[in-house]
Specification:
single chain, 439 residues, alpha+beta, Nuclear Transport Factor 2, Chain: A, Glucose Permease (Domain IIA), 3 domains, 22 strands, binds zinc ion
Length: 439
Amino acid sequence: MLRKTLKQIRLILSTYPRRHLYLLATGFALMLCIVFFSSMELDSDSSKESLYNQISIVDLDSQVNKDVFVPELIEFKKAEIKRNDSLFSILRRLGVIEKNIITLVNSDTNNLLAQIKVGKILEVEINDSNKVLSLNYIKDFKSGVRAQKTNETYKIEEYELLTEKSLVFRRVEISNSLYADGLREGLPDSVIMDLVYIFGWDIDFIHDIRPGDSYSLIYEEVFVNGEKKLDGDILIAEFLNQNSTHIAIRYKLSNGTSEYFSPEGRNVKKAFLRSPVKFSYISSKYNLKRKHPILHTIRSHNGVDYAAKRGSPVRATGDGTIFFAGVKNGCGNEIEIKHSEDYSTRYCHLQKFSTRIKKGKKVEQGQTIGYVGSSGLATGPHLHYEFHVNGKHTDPLRVKFPNAEPINAGDKKEYIEHANNMLSSLKNYQILTNSLASK
Ligand SMILES: [Zn+2]
């Protein structure tokens, strides 16, 4: 059967002229080719991809050869200044070439970059030949030093961004705690802390606060380019504690410092700190009939003992002059400070004194004068602290401390005017908030 068919085909073909046969064969071969290649493309995606890849690489090469503009690659880097860092070491770490760093640090007004501080931020733009294009030393949210590449040197200059201040009023009624209720009303942490500091001299925030107490205040917010950067200072604050009202107004004195005063010009600070050791607890109170822990006899305890870790700093509770710094029997290493004609304080059992603490030296309130220890007659590390008024022992936990210096005579007239303005601002805000709340 097959042989018969082949024979028939050969017979038909033999009737065609030879030229026609060639054409037919070529056409058939072409058709085979098309079918083969198209099936290859459809079947294998990966071979298709590699084909395209090759094409694109070729294209890129030809572009580079044609000298098409390629922009300079600029890298933006940021570094925090660490201990023992210098401008040189930081830039070296960021990959800047040494020769360029030398050019930069030898530019005019290079002194502006001479004192970079630990913890601050340095922003640098570096080009692809590892040279600095620009540098920004950020001092704080509003100021710093900039260096800009100009031909072969650098232009270094200080800058100060424009700031805007706006006032914020808040009134907080205490139902829980001064802190929690303040946060609930949207007061920032730092502002609450300032408030505690300002009124902490007059109000014991742990024992004196009652539900229903309230406070209102005006504080500043500082903006740069419309962005809030800082919760600033409290300008005025009023605290209603049980039945008493405390008001503190911030004022910049002619000597440049700012302090808080009452509307009459009384300093809100006291002449003495409540406690001479920050992190401590009272281990023994003032007691005129106490049994001495070592001598086991009834001897009055004419001071307060603060238990704290050995080596904890001891602070001068008020401004004054060192009257004695040395060793005295039971007291061990002792410091006595004379604050005024009437007041003096005494600190016992110190581990050691601070450097430069000696008789006749002036000290400021809060200044570290020594460290907690157990020298002299002491069972363990603690500070024995005494408060003398007119030469007599007094219980430091009960004595009513005098106020710190009031506003001086030269500043007083202007202060009273400022205080009245602030008081009426506060009043206006309070009335406005009340009327809004009652609507
Ligand atoms: Zn004691």
